[in-house]
Amino acid sequence: MSVGTQQQITHSIASWRPRLASAIGFGGPAARIARSAKAQAWPKRYAAYLWGADTAVILAAASVGVVFGDARPLTAGALAVVVGLWPFVLGLYGTREASVLGIGAEEYRRVVAASFQFFAVLAIAALLLGDSLPEHGAAGLLPARVVVFVFGCGLVGLLALRWGSRRWLNRQRHIGLYLTPAVVVGEPEDVRYVVRRIAASEGAPYNVLGAILPGGRRGQSLAVDGNRLPVLSSTDDVVRTVALKKAAAVIIAGPVPGGNKYVRELGWNLEQHDAELVLASSLTNVAGPRIHWRPVQGLPLMEVDLPHYTGAKHVVKRVMDLVLGTAALVVLAPVLAVLALIVRFDSPGPVLFRQERIGKDGRPFAMLKFRSMVEEAETKLDVLEAENEGAGVLFKVNDDPRVTRCGRWMRKYSLDELPQLMNVLKGEMSLVGPRPPLGREVGAYERYTRRRMLIKPGVTGLWQISGRSGLDWDDSVRLDLYYVENWSIMGDLMILWRTLRAVIAHVGAS
C-alpha cells in the first residue's frame, strides 16, 4: 500500500481528530474499561441480549397473528414453533456476530435474508404437513393472513430493534465502551493509516491500545496527526504484549517482517489467548460482499467479484426509484407548492433553476432545483473565483452573497433539492448515487475519477451522509467510487434513512 494512496483516501483530519484520541485509548476511565479483560466478553453478552430481544419481538408478532388473524389451537401451536425457531435461524445466519454489529448494512441484510428463507421453508413444511392433515390442510395450519401479519410485523419489528440497538451500541462506543481492545502491527505508515480509518469510521469496534512496530521498543510513541500512539513492543514480541495488555484483537496493518509465515505462526500462537487476528486489506475500495474465499488444495484464494453496471439488480434499483420517487412527490406535493410560492415572491426570477449536470456515461441533463440564488448568479461566478474555498475542482464560498433569503434556509434543510425527484422519474438520476458533477468538473477529472459516471448520479449518496459540503475533493471522489463499485439495495435504503436524519440535523449544508 503506497503512501500516496493512503493520503488520497484519508479523511479530513480536523473533522475527526477528537475521535482519534478516543480510538487510540485516550480519554480516561472509559478507555481503561475498554482495555480490561471484562471488555472482551461484551460480544457474548450483547449477542445474548439480541437473542432475547429478537424472541420478544417475534413473540409480539405471533401474538398479533393470533389476535387479529386466527386464534385456533392448531394455528397457535404452529406459531409457537415459529417463535422457537425464528430466533434460532437468525443465529444460524450470523445476525448476532460481533463483526456485523454497529456498522454497515450486513446485519440488516442477514436479518432480511434469514427471515425470508425461514418463512419459505415454513411454507413448504406447511404444505407437506397439510397433506397429513386433510381435515385442515396447509391453509388451516397457517392461514395466509396469519403469515402476512406475523412475517410483516416480525420483520419490521426486528429491523427496528436492530436499528435502535445499533444506535445505543454506537453511543456506548463513542464514550469508549463495548469496544474490542486491539493492537496494530506493521510499519509506521501502515499503522497510522489503519488507526486513522478506525477513528474516522462511525461505529468502528476497536479501541487501539498501541502499536507494535518492527524494531519497536516499549516507551516509544508514534505520532498520529497530533496525538501520540504508544509503541508497545517489536514484532518479535506480539504474543507476550497481547497477554500483558489483555488485547482481544491483533490487526496486521500491512507487510511485516517474515511475511506470510510470520502471520500464520502468529495466528497459531494467539489461539491460547483467545485473540482474533485481523488482516487490513490493501483493497481499499472493495466491500465485504464482493469478497469470497475459495480454497484450492489448501491454498486460500480470495476472489473479488467484478462490479456490474447492468442486470437484474439495476432493474430493481430503477423500480425502487420509480415507486419511492412517485410516493415522495405525492406526499410532498403541498410542501413543493408552498416552496414554489415562497421562491416566486422572495426575489425576481424563475421558480426552478435548471443547471446542466453530467449523468451516466457522460450524458448531460438538466438538473432541477428550487432557485436559491439571485437570477444573475452564474454571471457573478468569475467575480467570486478568488474567494473559492473548495478543494480540487469543487467551488465553494461560505456566506455566498448570491444566495437569496429563502435560499439560505432551503439549503440548510436541502429543500431546494426536492425537484430532483422529477429527474429521478425521468430516469436521469437515481434516489441514491454519486454526486452529479458539473461539466467543468468532468473536464478536470483524472482517468479513474470518470468511473463515477458508470451509474446514474443520485439525489443523495455516501457524500451526502458523510459531510456533504464539508468534504474535501479526495474524500468526495473516494466515497463516490466506493459506492459505484459496491452499492446494494439494502445499502441504498440505509443511505436514504441516514439522509433523512442528516437533513433534519442540517449537517454540512451550504
UniProtKB/TrEMBL annotation:
The protein, known as: Sugar transferase
Organism expressing this protein natively: Sinomonas terricola
Residue spans crossing the bilayer: 46-68, 74-95, 111-130, 142-163, 322-343
Membrane topology summary: Multi-pass membrane protein
Keywords assigned by UniProt, alphabetized: Coiled coil, Membrane, Transferase, Transmembrane, Transmembrane helix
Xref: NCBIfam families: EPS_sugtrans (TIGR03025)
Domain of life: Bacteria
Bacterial sugar transferase domain boundaries: 317-504
Record-stated family: Belongs to the bacterial sugar transferase family.
Localisation per UniProt entry: Membrane
UniProt feature coiled coil, ranges: 367-394
Enzyme Commission number(s): 2.7.8.-
GO molecular function ontology, one term from the record: transferase activity
